[in-house]
Amino acid sequence: MANKVIRKEKNTKEKIRAVARAEFLKHGFKDVSLEKIVKDAGYTKGAFYGYYPDKASLFNDIVSEAGEGLVSEFITAQNRHMDLIPGGDANKAVDMSREYLKYVIKYIYDHFDEFRLIICKSEGTAYENYIDKLVELNVKETLKFHRAMKRRGMTTGNVSADLQRIITKAYFSAIFETVRANMSRKKAMSYTGELASFFEGGWRAIMQCK
Predict the structure, then answer these.
(1) What is the pTM of this model?
(2) Does residue 68 sit in the same domain as residue 48?
(3) Where in the sequence is the domain holding 74, given as residue range(s)?
(4) Is residue 195 part of a domain?
(5) Are 185 and 109 in contact (CB under 8 A)?
(6) DSSP string over the chain
(7) CA angle 125, 128, 130 (to 5 degrees)
(8) Considering the domain boundaries, does residue 134 fall inside one?
């Protein structure tokens, strides 16, 4: 009996999530009513509130695993960049970034609906400034990376926080244009490869690694 109840509760929650996902993808978070989600799922508001306190928490539940997973992977990649410095391999950072970009695109396309929601449909939620969050993480870690290189005499270039923020915002916005434009996975891989080449030249000129 207990297993039957658990299965029923799981099915109810998944039905609500499925209906909500479709509605959010079609209309965006702000323009979808909780009443319509509940009605189309075939449940009452009382049933809904047994799983979620509000519409925002439902949206977050749908996108958070993919969104926070990418943030976690991004932090791991930044730490790997820092690991290059003790061995004097900082010049490999640009090549590592290119390989990581390939992974990012694969990750995004493995969770494309979730990132479509985050990038295009999240106004009014905790995820509407998702790109800015990634930018600030990158600015913080890149400046730390640059300072570490400076201390070891591995670079003569200078990177201000303002310049870093401007360049990084442009970079991440360009990456997520794949989602906004609804590109195919194949086209996105080609596009971001060219994008990486463009930004790499600029970073090499600014960093002036020895």
Answers:
(1) 0.85
(2) no
(3) 63-207
(4) yes
(5) yes
(6) -HHHHHHHHHHHHHHHHHHHHHHHHHH-STT--HHHHHHHHT--HHHHTTT-SSHHHHHHHHHHHHHHHHHHHHHHHHHHHHHTTTTT-GGGHHHHHHHHHHHHHHHHHHTHHHHHHHHHS-TTSTTTTHHHHHHHHHHHHHHHHHHHHHHTT-B-----HHHHHHHHHHHHHHHTHHHHTT--HHHHHHHHHHHHHHHHHHHHHHH-B-
(7) 125
(8) yes
Sign of the torsion angle spanned by Cα atoms 193, 197, 199, 200: positive
Q: Which amino acid is at 168?
A: T
Place of tokens 């290119």: 98
- Distance, in Å, from the CA atom of 44 to the CA atom of 35, rounded to the nearest integer, reads 9
How many structural domains does the chain have?
2
pLDDT in tens, 144-198: 877 777 777 766 767 778 888 998 899 999 999 999 999 999 999 999 999 988 8
On whether residue 70 sits in a domain, the answer given is yes
Query: Does residue 39 sit in the same domain as residue 123?
Result: no
Place of tokens 């959010």: 24
Distance of CA 181 to the CA centre of its chain: 16
Buried b vs exposed e over 117-149: b needs ≥16 C-beta within 10 Å? bbbebbeebebeebbeebbeebbebbeebbebb
pLDDT by residue (tens digit) across 123-140? 999 999 999 999 998 888
